[in-house]
Specification:
The chain has 342 residues and is an alpha/beta fold. Helices cover 45% and strands 14% of the residues. It folds into 2 domains: 10-151, HUPs (Rossmann fold, 3-Layer(aba) Sandwich); 160-341, Rossmann fold. The relative contact order is 0.11.
């Protein structure tokens, strides 16, 4: 930020940031370049977006840690330029600022004029014709995948519905994840552990440290695939299953693996468990059908213990996929799962 020893300057910008895109970022970065301090006021706006206010505020705090973010939970929802509506917005902004002096007000809209006047600030217009960054929040909301070049990965990952398939070995997770990804024209994350195990196992065993490497490597790949996903990303297995393997083979796990398994509990929007009703594929890297049934019990018990909602998938590949698609058709990211079950 600009440092001025004569008098400190403060820039302000505001919006719904639903979602935050490169046009918003140009505004914020211009304000950072031209001021000592920058404030971003962000509105709740549940009528416009399902993405919760704290998630949108987190994007800005993550990308611009030096910026002050104010969450306006009770901001006016009325739009327009009547004197009453303008006054309502001006009074709310002044109240949220608590008497702080604003040097420059940043926007690309017509409201910049009356808000700047109310603040006694310079009306700083940034790319009002959207020539530098030809995008809008409406366009991104309607087509996140098509507009993803205008959305930072930090933001885009939070727009994707993350679907994970759990289950013991040989329950059809890999086949189903790949099938659905092809059906929906998006990415899927294969189980990294199988690839790692084939390359690094000694006597059909891996160390605790290696099992942690599996969980970390799986997560890194998953993050990259999510950044290019189209609405959904389908994931075969997560750190909770890797933790189960560590507990089984070593009677314990490294603290970091426990942390990753705990984080996985809140990572996915939808959890599906593939049932053991398909024939067991007894490949050399597996431990037998009896072990499959034991692992399945442990996976279900872990989900129940953590109170994580899940759907059990049984039947043929087509029947399982149809069940997943029926859930996806009702599901809305950041809305209650009870709406799917109703």
């Amino acid at each position: 930020m600009k440092m001025n020893t004569q008098s400190k300057t403060t820039g302000l910008t505001l919006g719904k940031f639903a979602p935050l895109h490169k046009g918003h970022q140009l505004m914020i970065e211009t304000a950072i370049e031209e001021n000592d301090d920058v404030i971003v006021l962000i509105y709740d706006s549940p009528d416009v977006t399902d993405v919760p206010l704290p998630v949108r505020a987190k994007w800005i705090r993550t990308l611009y840690p030096g910026v002050e973010v104010i969450e306006a939970w009770d901001g006016p929802v009325e739009n327009g330029y009547t004197p009453e509506i303008q006054r309502m917005h001006e009074e709310h902004i002044l109240a949220m600022l608590g008497g702080r002096k604003i040097t420059r007000f940043y926007s690309s809209e017509k409201y910049g004029e009356h808000v700047s006047a109310a603040l006694g600030a310079h009306n700083r217009q940034v790319d009002p014709g959207r020539l530098t960054v030809p995008v809008s929040g409406t366009r991104v909301r309607h087509d996140p995948y098509g507009q993803r070049r205008y959305v930072d990965p930090v933001v885009y990952r939070d727009l994707i519905t993350k679907v994970v398939f759990l289950g013991a070995p040989s329950t059809g997770k890999t086949t189903l994840a790949g099938y659905l990804a092809n059906l929906h024209g998006t990415n899927w994350m294969p189980e990294y552990g199988r690839e790692y195990w084939a390359e690094h196992q000694i006597g059909r065993r891996l160390s605790k440290e290696q099992l942690l490497e599996i969980a970390e490597g799986h997560l890194r790949r998953e993050e990259k695939l999510t950044e290019e996903a189209n609405k959904y990303v389908f994931v075969d297995t997560d750190a909770r299953t890797t933790l189960r393997f560590s507990m089984y083979y070593h009677g314990g796990a490294l603290p970091k693996l426990h942390e990753l398994a705990e984080a996985a509990a809140a990572r996915y929007d939808l959890v599906f468990v593939c049932d053991t009703d398909i024939p067991y594929d007894d490949t050399w890297d597996r431990s037998g059908d009896a072990q499959r049934n034991l692992f399945q019990k442990q996976i279900l018990a872990d989900l129940n213990m953590r109170r994580i909602p899940y759907f059990v998938l049984s039947g043929t590949l087509e029947e399982r996929a149809a069940r997943v698609n029926a859930v996806l058709a009702k599901h809305r990211k950041y809305r209650s799962l009870a709406e799917v079950l109703a």
